């Protein structure tokens, strides 16, 4: 094998792509070439690094010294080759100024960061200015000064880039050095500007205040340097002369940095962030700035001022400017719509990205640097009013403080830190290549390979770079949405600055102002929640100012705060709890509203605090099948029947809270609430039936049940219209297995039914489910369980019209499917007679209704406000619909339903009732049902009256969507709606 072939193979293995070109370049270097191959293989682009080295060597007067130094000193070689491999622009600079390679021989370069004052002095001396002069002025001729400034700038940049690339400087250090370099460059540019302006320059004090990344000590390799100019006339100077001189100084400074010369350019100085932008004067006095910011400034201007830092010119004046704007910056979050304006501004930035760049934009695109910066800055501006530790100017420093203070979760903070560091490093490497201001990730395979290798991906660099970038983009996008659009931000931003920090003094005055009935007790709860230096206490201090306001908007803020304390204490240090409240959507706001409105929901949460998690989920009721499966699986792990049913009831308790929360928050229609509660009861009875049948078999030493059992839902349960306080009205039916002893089967079924009722009514941490079988044949005197034949015989011989009416709501939902279907087939002719009920039966139904109205209305109850039995109440409406069913369901199949609203719709379709009358009945049914549910949720126990207590009435009104103070309006609406429904009942039911 020839030497050339061997050489090519080696070069390819070392990462070279153009082996022929590399061989030619190595030959041009002579004996120095081969010893450098290993180091070249570690660079971003070995081909580019080798070719640039040849060019630099050819340009250098001390070529032999250069090559000898590279061979003898690995540190020097690594620094130079890393720069040449990563930056074509700095390679070109070294070709123009080959003597600058000596800068990379400094053995301390890898470990020592140059002091900012030393950088400034070097740049000033380059233009002939005295660094110790209070107003340093250039003495080198103007054109030569411009070139000298650029050469010195590139010299320092060369040293910095070599440390960054070869010694892994780190993002913070590199960005801070670049910011110091920019500050020194602005000072030297101002020195040249003073030389241009001449004597008038002495009439003014000019401060250069850096904004954005330069102000935050986190500048890129190539970026606009955003500044604001503030000036004041010196004592005794003419104000107009001082203003003109300041404007000339600022204009010339901008030109010095941005003009192109034989040595290129530095970067643009952008003063567009000044008051009124490009339309406003370039320079202003402190007073003029203050007047503008206090009266005219927009939201984004205060966000921009977050990083303001004096960097050049009169630093004392610059510090005065920063001190002036600081109170305005840290109160900006209290401006009307501040959070929403900031969020809208970020969306506008994304919308204006050119479509061809959207997927490659590292800075402005979704999942890019701006997403991190906007989220961090918004959190700073909202919470930094009360917590001065958050006022760090650098993004990563601020993020660390936000994480340390509990405003951002640890995992989220770490993920954002890692992603932002990666994205910034990638931005640096992209810009370093040509020293151009760009934030677009290239698509060229060679450029991606170079970038990937410069970031440490030496195996499949382009693919691995893209994979890692996409991972961080997804993380940033996810966390930006989570943090930037956090509802807590808008709530906290509305709290006046002194009250945003929950000190005892601020809390006491805030509680009284918010209308807490017992501020002293509330303050004790706050102290218990926020005292100490734990992370939980810090998060509570951030949460509670907003939660106090949300609770105060609800009817019973004192109860809400007490409930919140109990739940917080029961969950203790559970890691997800406070994190969920802080981060997950509207959980904290929803929790505050529930606790300050509903005793029912509060008691459920106190017994099942894990339910807090549900508030960030879909609150629609779960289907019965899924619940049954979960309940059966959970109960099967317990041998003891009581423990097994407790497991079932725990799931029921959780789902009761889901439905209650969705109802209170207005996310579930009242008909869906009834259906959800009914399906939950289905699942509870089904799983309990499984447990009790197994337990009775074991107690009686039976291998298998001697009979099949079904549970028939009746009443509002059968109609899918349960409310929170409803009993479960049922019938028990059984059917002995072939060959089974009838007596043994009946005894078994009786034992199962009794055990179901006992286990579900035991005292516990959840609301008991009372299983009521009083609608069975012969009522309480009749057998608890009957066979199908026994039911058929009874109904055939003894059934009364009221029993046929009761069977309208029979829905066979639990137990043996075949038995359920046969039961419904057996009762259908009775409840849906082919010719309808007789006129005598109609009279009997009306007679029974009149007796119910007279006898069952509680003594002293107001018939106009009783929700169930009052005029136009539930009983009126439901009996009216049921009478239509009994009279017409035999010939109108659509009426054969157990649900009131479905039957009402079918009656309209069959023209048995007018659309207008049906709408009045439906409106009445929905209104009364909602109020009845709301009363239970508010009081924590069932109630069939409109509440008389003012706070309870206000809470019910709030749940129905009435404005604060409008509870009397709710009562008036109720009376009007039920009066109109009762008028329809008079016509349709009573005839």
From TrEMBL:
SUPFAM superfamilies listed in its UniProt record: Nucleotidyltransferase (SSF81301), Nucleotidyltransferase substrate binding subunit/domain (SSF81593)
HAMAP family: GlnE
KW Endoplasmic reticulum (keyword) present: no
Record keyword Nucleotide-binding present: yes
Region of interest called Adenylyl transferase, as start-end residue ranges on this chain: 496-991
Cofactor(s) the record lists: Mg(2+)
Organism (species): Nocardioides ginsengisegetis
Protein name: Bifunctional glutamine synthetase adenylyltransferase/adenylyl-removing enzyme
E.C. no: 2.7.7.89, 2.7.7.42
GO cellular component: cytosol
CDD domains the UniProt entry points to: NT_GlnE_GlnD_like (cd05401)
Domain PII-uridylyltransferase/Glutamine-synthetase adenylyltransferase: 344-484, 848-987
Function: Involved in the regulation of glutamine synthetase GlnA, a key enzyme in the process to assimilate ammonia. When cellular nitrogen levels are high, the C-terminal adenylyl transferase (AT) inactivates GlnA by covalent transfer of an adenylyl group from ATP to specific tyrosine residue of GlnA, thus reducing its activity. Conversely, when nitrogen levels are low, the N-terminal adenylyl removase (AR) activates GlnA by removing the adenylyl group by phosphorolysis, increasing its activity.
Family affiliation: Belongs to the GlnE family.
Region described as Adenylyl removase: 1-488
TM annotation in the entry: none
Gene3D superfamilies: Beta Polymerase, domain 2 (3.30.460.10), Nucleotidyltransferases domain 2 (1.20.120.330)
Domain of life: Bacteria
Any one GO molecular-function label of the UniProt entry: [glutamate-ammonia-ligase] adenylyltransferase activity
The reaction(s) this protein catalyses: [glutamine synthetase]-O(4)-(5'-adenylyl)-L-tyrosine + phosphate = [glutamine synthetase]-L-tyrosine + ADP; [glutamine synthetase]-L-tyrosine + ATP = [glutamine synthetase]-O(4)-(5'-adenylyl)-L-tyrosine + diphosphate
Gene assigned in the entry: glnE
NCBIfam families (alphabetical): PRK14109.1
Domain Glutamate-ammonia ligase adenylyltransferase repeated: 79-318, 589-825
């Amino acid at each position: 094998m020839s030497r050339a072939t061997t050489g090519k193979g080696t070069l390819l293995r070392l990462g070279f792509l153009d082996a022929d070109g590399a061989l030619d370049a190595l030959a041009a270097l002579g004996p120095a070439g081969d010893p450098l191959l290993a180091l070249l293989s570690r660079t971003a682009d070995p081909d580019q690094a080798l070719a640039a080295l040849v060019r630099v060597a050819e340009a250098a007067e001390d070529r032999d010294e250069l090559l000898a130094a590279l061979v003898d000193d690995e540190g020097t070689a690594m620094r130079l080759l890393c720069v040449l491999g990563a930056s074509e622009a700095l390679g070109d600079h070294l070709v123009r100024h080959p003597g600058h390679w000596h800068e990379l021989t400094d053995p301390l370069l890898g470990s020592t960061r140059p002091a900012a004052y030393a950088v400034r002095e070097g740049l000033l001396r380059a233009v002939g200015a005295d660094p110790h002069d209070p107003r340093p002025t250039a003495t080198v001729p103007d054109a030569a000064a411009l070139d000298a400034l650029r050469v010195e700038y590139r010299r320092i940049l060369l040293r910095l880039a070599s440390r960054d690339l070869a010694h892994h400087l780190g993002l913070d250090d590199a960005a801070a050095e670049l910011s110091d370099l920019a500050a020194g460059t602005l000072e030297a540019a101002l020195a040249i500007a003073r030389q241009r302006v001449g004597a008038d320059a002495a009439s003014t004090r000019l401060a250069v205040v850096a904004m954005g990344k330069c102000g935050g000590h986190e500048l890129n390799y190539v970026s606009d340097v955003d500044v604001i100019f503030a000036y004041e006339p010196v004592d005794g100077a003419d104000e107009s002369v001082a203003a003109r001189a300041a404007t000339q100084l600022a204009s010339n400074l901008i030109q010095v940095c941005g003009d192109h010369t034989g040595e290129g350019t530095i970067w643009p100085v952008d003063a567009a962030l000044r008051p009124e932008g490009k339309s406003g004067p370039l320079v202003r006095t402190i007073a003029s700035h203050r007047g503008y910011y206090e009266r005219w400034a927009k939201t984004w201007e205060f966000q921009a001022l977050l990083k303001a830092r004096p960097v050049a010119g009169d630093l004392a004046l610059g510090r005065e400017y920063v001190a002036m704007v600081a109170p305005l910056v840290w109160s900006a979050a209290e401006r009307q719509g501040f959070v929403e304006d900031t969020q809208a501004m970020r969306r506008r930035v994304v919308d204006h990205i050119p479509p061809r760049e959207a997927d490659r934009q590292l800075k402005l695109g979704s999942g890019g640097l701006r997403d991190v910066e906007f989220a961090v800055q918004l959190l700073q501006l909202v919470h930094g009013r009360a917590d001065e530790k958050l006022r760090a100017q650098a993004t990563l420093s601020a993020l660390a403080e936000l994480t340390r203070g509990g405003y951002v979760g640890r995992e989220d903070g770490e993920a954002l830190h890692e992603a932002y560091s990666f994205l910034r490093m990638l931005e640096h490497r992209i810009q370093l290549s040509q020293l151009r201001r760009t934030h677009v990730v290239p698509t060229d395979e060679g450029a991606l390979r170079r970038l990937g290798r410069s970031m440490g991906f030496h195996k499949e660099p382009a693919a691995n770079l893209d994979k890692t970038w996409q991972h961080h983009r997804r993380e940033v996008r996810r966390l930006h949405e989570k943090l930037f659009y956090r509802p807590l931000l808008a709530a906290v931003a509305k709290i006046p600055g002194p009250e945003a920090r929950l000190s005892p003094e601020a809390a006491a005055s805030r509680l009284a102002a918010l209308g807490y009935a017992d501020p002293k007790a509330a303050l004790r709860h706050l102290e218990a929640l926020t005292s100490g230096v734990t992370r939980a206490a810090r998060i509570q201090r951030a949460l509670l100012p907003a939660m106090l306001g949300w609770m105060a908007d609800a009817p019973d803020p004192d109860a809400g705060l007490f409930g919140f304390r109990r739940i917080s204490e029961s969950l203790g240090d559970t890691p997800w709890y406070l994190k969920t409240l802080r981060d997950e959507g509207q959980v904290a706001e929803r929790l505050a509203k529930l606790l300050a409105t509903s005793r029912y929901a509060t008691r459920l949460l106190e017994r099942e605090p894990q339910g807090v998690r549900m508030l960030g989920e879909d609150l629609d009721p779960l289907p019965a099948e899924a619940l049954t499966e979960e309940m059966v699986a959970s109960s099967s792990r317990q041998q003891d029947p009581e423990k097994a049913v407790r497991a079932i009831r725990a799931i029921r308790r959780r789902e009761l809270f889901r439905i209650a929360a969705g109802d209170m928050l207005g996310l579930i229609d009242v008909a869906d609430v009834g259906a959800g509660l009914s399906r939950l009861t289905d699942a509870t009875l089904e799983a309990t039936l499984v447990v009790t049948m197994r337990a009775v078999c074991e107690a009686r030493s039976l291998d298998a049940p001697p009979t099949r059992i079904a549970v028939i839902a009746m009443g509002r349960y059968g109609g899918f219209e349960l409310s929170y306080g409803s009993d479960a009205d049922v019938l028990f039916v059984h059917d002995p297995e072939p060959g089974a002893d009838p007596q043994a089967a009946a005894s078994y079924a009786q034992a199962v039914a009794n055990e179901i009722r006992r286990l579900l009514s035991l005292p516990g941490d959840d609301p008991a489910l009372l299983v009521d079988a009083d609608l069975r044949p012969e009522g309480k005197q009749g057998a608890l369980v009957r066979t199908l034949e026994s039911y058929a015989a009874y109904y055939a011989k003894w059934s009364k019209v009221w029993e046929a009416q009761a069977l309208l709501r029979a829905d066979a939902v639990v137990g043996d499917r075949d038995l359920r279907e046969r039961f419904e087939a057996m009762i259908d002719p009775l409840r849906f007679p082919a010719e309808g009920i007789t006129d005598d039966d109609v009279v009997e139904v009306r007679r029974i209704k009149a007796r119910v109205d007279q006898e069952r209305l509680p003594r002293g109850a107001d018939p106009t406000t009783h929700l169930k039995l009052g005029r136009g109440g539930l009983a009126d409406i439901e009996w009216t619909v049921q009478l239509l069913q009994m009279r017409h369901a035999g010939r109108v199949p659509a009426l054969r339903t157990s649900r009131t609203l479905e039957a009402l719709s079918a009656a309209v379709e069959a023209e048995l009732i007018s659309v207008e009358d049906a709408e009045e009945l439906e409106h009445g049914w929905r209104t009364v049902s909602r109020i009845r549910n709301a009363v239970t949720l508010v009081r924590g126990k069932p109630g069939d009256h409109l509440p008389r207590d003012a706070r309870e009435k206000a809470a019910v009104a709030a749940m129905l969507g009435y404005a604060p103070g409008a509870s009397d309006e709710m009562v008036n609406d109720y009376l009007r709606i039920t009066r109109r429904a009762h008028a329809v009942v008079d016509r349709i039911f009573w005839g």
